[in-house]
Amino acid sequence: MSRRTARAWALLLLGVATACGTPRGPVQKVTIPKGVPFRVTAESLAVHGLVSNPRLFRVYAKLRGRDRSIRYGTYMLALGASWNEVLDDLRRG
User: Are the beta carbons of 50 and 32 closer than 8 angstroms?
Assistant: First the structure.
């Protein structure tokens, strides 16, 4: 299997896993300090219950090309939001 095909399958599986999501729930306050690696951000999101698997979340963000476009700051993020919604919020600042 080519690398491109493997990436496509990974995106498809991750998309299916996150698209269904759970209903949005209460919000969690998360602070992303300036200059931290995306790995630290993903782990913080997992600690706050916003993502279930920080490693898969990092892969998902990288495959979507959004692991380097987040902004630091304090966020109020809804539990049950899809990974795409979380990345959108982190990108908007």
Answer: no
Q: Report which DSSP code applies to 72.
A: -
CA dihedral sign, ordered 2, 3, 7, 8? negative
3-state secondary structure of 4: helix
Contacts of residue 24, defined as CB under 8 A and 6 or more positions apart, other chains included, come to 78, 79, 80, 81
This prediction has a pTM of 0.74
pLDDT by residue (tens digit) across 26-80?
999 999 999 999 999 999 999 999 999 999 999 999 999 999 999 999 999 999 9
Residue 57 CB coordination number (10 Å): 25
- 8 Å CB contact between 87 and 77: no
Other beta carbons within 10 Å of 65: 8
Taking only Cα atoms into account, the Rg of the chain, rounded to an integer number of angstroms, comes to 13
